[in-house]
Amino acid sequence: MAPSHLSPSSNSPSTRYLSLAEREEIAILQAQGHGVREVARRLGRAASTISRELRRNAATRSGGLDYRATTAQWHAERAARRPKPAKLAGNAALRTYVQDRLAGAVATPSGSALPGPSVAWKGRRHGRRQSRQWGRSWSPQQIAARLRLDFPDDPTMRISHEAIYQALYIQGRGALKRELTACLRTGRVLRVPRARCLRRGKSFVTPEVLISERPPEVEDRAVPGHWEGDLILGLKSSAIGTLVERTTRFTMLLHLPPMDGHGAIPRAKNGPALAGHGAAAVREAIASTIARLPEHLRRSLTWDQGAEMAEHARLRIDAGLQVYFCDPRSPWQRGTNENTNGLLRQYFPKGTDLSAHTGDDLAAVAAALNSRPRKTLNWKTPAEALDAVLAAVQNGVATTA
């Protein structure tokens, strides 16, 4: 015989859940015409609990939403049965969609696949000083939200981001291989915060180019064309430049290869920066990259107080771009760029040699990042948002939204 606590007439094993007696009281009060809040007050429950109970466990066989205590108790007991089959395990189309966006191959702008570095799965988190697996690397939240846009009329193509995390980290949930955790941006087994580095200020920054002098239109992101930039650093003094547009989150990467003689001859004091990310090299890379954009998308650039921007006055002349600098030790003033740099560490981990990547590699990674949906863009991709801005300008519509 079944244990007594599983009997339909027994109380709920936890006061967290409604009991049969409470459901009978709900049915009586509803029949008397009392509202949801009045029922909740009398039972000492939250109004949302009563509303959800009436919606989920109502009897629908008659075509309406009649609430009967015994039927509601049956619905609740059926939903509480464990173990329940994982949603990804029983839906092949949904499982394929999730896997493709977690581990799909990065492609070059021409469409050819780019495998990236070869990384062996070790059954544990990857160290900080190792190459990471390249992939489309959408986050579970991005995947869950994008499903509603890609399949608006198919309710079977729905899953929460927490269910995806459980399928990855709890192997009893099945459906997804543990190796796919290497495709998550952080690569960690647990979701914990990571400390950020702080930077020092530089003396070449004058008061008129501080962030406090930046136009108010930059802050509210209403007008596109305002950029944030930074360098991500690697071993052997290697670096990659990043530019992120504040309104659309569109990202461009700067290829900064080492100059001739780097690592082969002793470094000369006050000599040229042979590592490839000196002031002159960064200025030329920014000017050549951003010059490909229309003039209305080249309004300002916000950078930290790194020495690589010592030639900002000449950059303003070459690119027609007003440059502003953050306050010392204030990386949150470039929050969009800091977030993007964290996403890029999926492809360019700390402690690896970034000079091994070619310009085509950077273009492929930028294309992958610009094709990932963003919550702040209502789950559109940065590329789609930038296309909308360009189309609005071509049609003569003001870009203030």
Protein architecture, described:
- By secondary structure, the protein is α/β, with parallel strands linked by helices.
- The protein has 3 domains: 20-80, no CATH class; 87-183, no CATH class; 221-398, Nucleotidyltransferase, domain 5 (2-Layer Sandwich), CATH 3.30.420.
- It contains 14 helices and 7 strands.
- The protein has helices spanning 20-31, 36-43, 47-56, 69-79, 87-90, 92-103, 140-150, 161-169, 216-219, 279-290, 312-319, 335-344, 359-370, 382-394; strands at residues 106-107, 113-114, 226-233, 239-245, 251-255, 300-303, 322-325.
- The strands form 2 sheets. It has a 5-stranded mixed β-sheet with strand order 5-4-3-6-7, with helices on both faces.
- Helix 1 (20-31) crosses helix 4 (69-79) and helix 2 packs across helix 3.
Describe how the helices and strands are arranged.
Blueprint: H1 20-31, H2 36-43, H3 47-56, H4 69-79, H5 87-90, H6 92-103, E1 106-107, E2 113-114, H7 140-150, H8 161-169, H9 216-219, E3 226-233, E4 239-245, E5 251-255, H10 279-290, E6 300-303, H11 312-319, E7 322-325, H12 335-344, H13 359-370, H14 382-394
Parallel strand pairs: 3-6, 6-7
Antiparallel strand pairs: 1-2, 3-4, 4-5
